[in-house]
Design a protein that fits this description.
The chain contains two helices and 29 strands. By secondary structure, the chain is mostly beta strands. A seven-stranded antiparallel beta sheet has the order 2-23-20-25-18-15-14, with no helix packed on it. The chain is globular and about 55 Å long. This is Pirin family protein.
Length: about 325
C-alpha cells in the first residue's frame, strides 16, 4: 500500500526509552484517506509521536470493514518502495497484487503476502470485482542497515489455524505457541492474528527481548491495565516474558500481535521510501521519477504491461522538516 498523503513528512525514527515491564501504552490512530474519487479511509496508528517503531515494525494502516460500493475499494496504482518489507493481511475481501519482480498474486483472508523492497521495487494493489466488503491491515517492516539493499522479492504463506485455550491463532511471522512461519525475515520479528471469544483471557509467552504491540481489530482489548478499541495499538515495552490479554465481555475480539527486537537504528521514512539520510531519500525519489517516465529501469524494475499508470512522487519540502521519533 502506498502512503497517500499529499505532503508526507520526513520522519527520523528511533526507539524511546521503555517505561518498564509493567507499563502498557495505548497508541491512538489518525484517519488518512487512501485516495481515489471517494477515498477509502484508513486508520494509521504507526508511526506517531508516542512511538515510531515496534521492533522493526514501522508502519501500521488498519482499514474497514468498508462497503466498496460506497468507498470505491482499494485502487492503488504502481508505486515504489525501498528499504522495507510490506506485510499484507486481510480479514475480508480480496486484493490483486502485481510487482516488478513479475509476481502476480491475490491477497486473501488468513493468508500472508510479504514483499521485500530491498534496493527497490514497485507494486500495485486493487480490490477485485468479487469484493463487496474490504477489511484488513497493511504493515511495513524496516530492513536493518546490513540488509536494506537486498534483492527485491515476494512470498506467500497460508499459516495453519491453531487453537490455544479456546483462542484461534494464526502465526504468520516468526514463532509463537510452538508454531514457526517459514517466511524470510531480516530481523527478529513475530506476527500473529489472535481471535478471542467474548470475555476470554489468554496468557501469551513472549520473548522479553521484544517489544510488542497488539493492534485491536474488533471488540475491545484489555492488557496491562489499559484498553484499546479498533484501530488502536496496545504497546508493551521490553522485559515481559508473559503478556495476558482479555477480550471485552460482550463481543469477540480480534487482534494482530506485532512484536520484535528493537531495530537499534535511526531511519528516515518519507512517502514510500525508507533510507538513512534526507539526501538518500531525495535520490530515491529522483530515481523513481526517472524510471516512471521510462516505464521501468534498473532500480525499480520492469513495469507490468497491466499497469496503465503509476503514482508520481509528491513534491519534497523546500527545507528539512523537524524530525520526530
Amino acid at each position: 500500500m502506498s502512503n497517500p498523503e499529499k505532503n508526507p513528512a520526513e520522519v527520523v525514527c528511533d526507539e524511546r526509552e521503555a517505561d518498564g515491564p509493567g507499563a502498557a501504552l495505548v497508541l491512538p490512530y489518525r484517519n488518512v484517506p487512501l485516495g481515489g474519487p471517494r477515498a477509502m479511509p484508513v486508520r494509521r496508528s504507526l508511526p506517531q509521536r508516542e512511538r515510531s517503531l515496534i521492533g522493526a515494525w514501522c508502519f501500521v494502516d488498519h482499514y474497514g470493514p468498508d462497503d466498496v460500493s460506497e468507498t470505491g475499494g482499494m485502487k492503488v496504482p504502481g508505486h515504489p518502495h525501498t528499504g522495507l518489507q510490506t506485510v499484507s493481511w486481510l480479514f475480508t475481501g480480496e486484493i490483486e497484487h502485481r510487482d516488478t519482480t513479475g509476481a502476480h498474486a491475490m491477497v486473501r483472508p488468513g493468508q500472508l503476502n510479504i514483499m521485500t523492497a530491498g534496493s527497490g521495487i514497485a507494486h500495485s494493489e486493487y480490490s477485485t470485482g468479487e469484493t463487496t466488503m474490504l477489511h484488513g491491515a497493511q504493515l511495513w517492516v524496516a530492513l536493518p542497515d546490513e540488509h536494506r539493499f537486498v534483492s527485491p522479492g515476494f512470498e506467500h504463506y497460508a499459516p495453519p489455524a491453531i487453537e490455544i485455550e479456546g483462542a484461534k491463532v494464526l502465526v504468520f511471522l516468526g514463532s509463537l505457541f510452538g508454531e514457526t512461519s517459514p517466511v524470510s525475515m531480516y530481523s527478529d520479528l513475530v506476527g500473529a492474528e489472535i481471535n478471542l471469544a467474548a470475555g476470554q483471557r489468554l496468557e501469551i509467552e513472549v520473548d522479553p527481548r521484544h517489544e510488542h504491540g497488539f493492534l485491536c481489530d474488533t471488540g475491545t482489548l484489555t492488557s496491562g491495565g489499559a484498553a484499546a478499541k479498533p484501530g488502536e495499538i496496545l504497546f508493551h515495552p521490553l522485559g515481559r516474558d508473559r503478556i495476558t490479554v482479555e477480550a471485552s465481555s460482550s463481543e469477540e475480539t480480534r487482534v494482530l500481535l506485532l512484536g520484535g527486537a528493537p531495530l537499534g537504528e535511526q531511519i528516515v521514512m518519507w512517502w514510500n521510501f525508507i533510507g538513512r539520510t534526507h539526501d538518500e531519500v531525495v535520490r530515491f525519489r529522483e530515481g523513481w521519477q526517472r524510471e516512471r517516465e521510462a516505464r521501468g529501469g534498473v532500480q525499480f524494475g520492469a513495469f507490468p504491461d497491466a499497469w496503465p499508470d503509476t503514482l508520481p512522487a509528491p513534491e519534497l519540502p523546500n527545507v528539512r522538516l523537524r524530525t520526530r521519533g
